Amino acid sequence: MYEAVSRLSEPMAPRVNRVIAIATAILLVAVVSPSQAKEFQSSWEVVESGTSEDLLTAVFHDGQVWAFGTGGVMLNSSDNGVTWEIADSPTNTDIHHSDSGFGSLLVAGDSGLMLLKQDSDSEWLDISLPSGSEVRSLTDWRSQRHCCRRPRNHLEIRQWSLGGS
Q1: Which domain holds residue 31?
Q2: Is the residue at 10 inside a domain?
């Protein structure tokens, strides 16, 4: 009879060892994780933007950080986002995309809105797509500007160049 009991308990040994190993791992995770989480601090800081509009996109351009959002809001900061100024905006259309490169700043938004600022002293130039267009992305790639839109189940890519810039 002793021999029968011994044979039954042997297959249980690997299971018991596995259960002990899993319980030990769970205990270690439970003990170590909270102490690590308490020591973690984020470097994000909340700063006042000066607007109640939602900010949807941001880009670094010509030594300034620019942020754009709902209602066509445009903000810029010359101190890396510590303080913000509301910039004059030629639109009240939501701005969802922004890109910067080769001295120019490009933004796009609802209904095909596209605005280009060729340098920091210039006014915004309206280069919008046909009304109702949906701009999906922007890139200022090797001084050839591109945007993508998706009309009627296909993708169109628009490319343009402005006087060698």
Answers
A1: 2-39
A2: yes
